[in-house]
Amino acid sequence: QAYLSYSNIAALTHLARKPGWDITKTLDNVKIWTHEEGAVLSFKVEMQVKVPSHVAFSLLSDFRLRQRWDRHFLTCEVLQAVSEEEKIYHVTALPTTGHKPRDFVLLVSQRQPCRPPEPYTVAVRSVTLRAVPPSPEFCRSEILCAGFQIHSNGSSSCTVCYFNQVTSGVMPYLAANLTGSSKSIEDTALECIKFLE
């Protein structure tokens, strides 16, 4: 478990530091970036939020609050509190056209910064839990690496960056967005800002 949580944080930190991010869209408080490496597509959503970084961190690290701003989330329950900084959740997501609803078993690891310039981190990856085998009513899907980095911009504002390394389980939710026929990433980002503020 210690190794899993360490590698969860390390994978997100590594993804965030990769060179070669391309900006694809800029709105008032939201920027969307993509990164392609071989067959792997990742995206980053950067949001300017008018709340202190520690407030954004406490709201984003509790995944049960995610339904209040992310319309893709149907349900979210804590399966296991591994430690104060680690929880395992079972999440169900809306079905995409012609498919069963998807479900995910996710390890969410949260870390406060050790030193001031470092961000708050909420890292997310799929794990296997014997107690929650795949169910016939859902399509069990996987998240390789996703999560938030929250950088303080002073006492009353912060920059929230959401990262996701796209897998086939997540792609249906993004495909229309990346081809320009949907605005779900922007809409979700604006809902997130509204929720945090």
UniProtKB/TrEMBL annotation:
Q: Which GO terms describe its cellular component?
A: cytoplasm
Q: Record's InterPro entries?
A: START-like_dom_sf, START_lipid-bd_dom, START_lipid_transfer
Q: Name one GO molecular function term.
A: lipid binding
Q: Where is the START domain?
A: 16-166
Q: Pfam families given for it?
A: START (PF01852)
- Residues in coiled coil: none
Q: What is this protein called?
A: ACO12 thioesterase
